[in-house]
Amino acid sequence: MDLPPKASPRMIGHNSSDKNLARMIRVDHAGEHGAVQIYRGQLAVLGHTASARTIRHMEEQEQAHLKTFDALMVEQGVRPTVFSPVWHVAGFALGAVTALMGEKAAMACTAAVEEVIDQHYASQVAALEEDGAPAAALKETIEAFRADEIEHRDTAIAHGAEQTPGYGLLSGAIKAGCRLAIRLSERF
Ligand SMILES: [Fe+2]
Ligand SMILES: [Fe+2]
Q1: Ligand 2 centre from 76 Cα, in Å?
Q2: DSSP element (H, E) containing 39
Q3: Please, which residues have CB less than 5 A from ligand 1, an ion?
Q4: pLDDT score at 2
Q5: 15: CA distance to ligand 2 center in Å?
């Protein structure tokens, strides 16, 4: 991952498109926080298996993403979502429970989550394109992270995610949960 450009100076003021930027930073921070927790939950169960190295690498990338959004929130004066403590626990639980179902189920979880994040980041990039210069740095950051998320999804599929028994059902449920979490984190 290339280091994204620094998004300062302050880009958020008080108009409605600024409110959208604040929402974007809030929800992305929540998502990266959740992602770190999911991979930590997986590692708590699968830390000594063949998948551990792969999962640890993804977790490290999520930590770098989270750190960037941590800094952006401070710089831009954006508060975290009120659901932050919920995502902390739910993310870890999702990672651990799917890992308990097996390495392939853990990968199915990763593929589902990363697919939703990929789509989410793609729609943010499209929205930021219309915002022009003030949003350019944030757009570049999100594009760089999106490339990592796509890589995570592809890695999970390469590790047999789709061979999980009940893959369609499991994947559908996780994606629905992620989309709900995104909507809640944007607004609250
Ligand atoms: Fe990420
Ligand atoms: Fe990811």
Answers
A1: 23
A2: helix 16-46
A3: 32, 35, 62, 65
A4: 55
A5: 31
